[in-house]
Amino acid sequence: xxxxxxxxxxxxxxxxxxxxxxxxxxxxxxxxxxxxxxxxxxxxxxxxxxxxxxxxxxxxxxxxxxxxxxxxxxxxxxxxxxxxxxxxxxxxxxxxxxxxxxxxxxxxxxxxxxxxxxxxxxxxxxxxxxxxxxxxxxxxxxxxxxxxxxxxxxxxxxxxxxxxxxxxxxxxxxxxxxxxxxxxxxxxxxxxxxxxxxxxxxxxxxxxxxxxxxxxxxxxxxxxxxxxxxxxxxxxxxxxxxxxxxxxxxxxxxxxxxxxxxxxxxxxxxxxxxxxxxxxxxxxxxxxxxxxxxxxxxxxxxxxxxxxxxxxxxxxxxxxxxxxxxxxxxxxxxxxxxxx
Length: 340
Prior knowledge:
alpha+beta; Arc Repressor Mutant, subunit A; 2 domains; 12-stranded antiparallel sheet; elongated
C-alpha cells in the first residue's frame, strides 16, 4: 500500500511534545525516543527512526481517544528500543512480512513472523529489536486503557467489550501472547491494507471494534504458541551461523557440522533459524546463493558462469544451472543475456 505524504520540516522531538492540541489524546502512549517527523496532516503523522543499519517509518492514526493505529515499515537490521509505556496499555501487532526478534529482560527472545498476531502489554518493550531479514512490515493497534475504555464505551454502546479482561486473558499482569495463525484476525489486518481513501477513519473504527470483539471470544488456551520464544544464547548462536554461511557461501555446510561448531543442538538450530529467517537453513542458503549469482551475472562481466557457480558454492556448472533455472525461470546464460 502506498501512502502520499506531504513534506514538512524534519525535527527530532519526544512524541508527547509534538502536537499542539490535535494529538493530545496520545499523551498516555509514552516516549519512544528520538525520531524525525516526516509528515503531518489532519489525519495522521509520519515519523522515522534511523541508525547506521537503516531506517523505519511509522504512519500513525488516531482512531478514538487513546486508540491508535500504526503502519510499520522497517528496513534495518537492528534497533535499540527505548520505548516505555507510561500507562496501562494493550497493543496488538500484526506481522505482514519479514520478522522481528525482540530481546526481553528475562533472557529470552520472542519472535514475530509473517502471519503472526502478537498481543502485548508493552511492559517489556525496551531493549534490542533485531530484524533478521532486514525488513519488517506490519500494523500495530494500541489502546491506552484509561482513555480507550471511556471512548470505546461511548462508541460501542451495546457491544460487550472489556479491554481489561482482554489484556488479562492474553497478557496476565505484564506479558505477551503470540497467535501463530488465525484466519479471522489475518483477514481483518489484511483488509487494513485496502482502506478506502475517503473513509479511512470510519473504516479504522469499524475494524478496531471488530478486532476487540474477535479477541473477546478467542480462548487463549486453544491457541498454540510453540516456536515463538527462544533463549538469548540460542538466538545469538543462530545469528552467528547465518553470518558465517552468508559471508562464506562458497563453502559446503551440514546442519550437524554447524551445530557442533556453534555448540547448539541440531533441533534448536533448525527451529530457531526457521523462526528468525522464515525458511529452513538449506532453503535460505540456496536462495541466498542464487541471489548473489544474479548480482555477479549482472555486474561482473569478467566472471564466467563456471566462475560464478564456484563462487556461490556449486562445484558443478550443471547443478548450478539447474538450481538457477528452477528459482529464476531461465538459465544463467539467458539471465545474463537479457541484461544487455
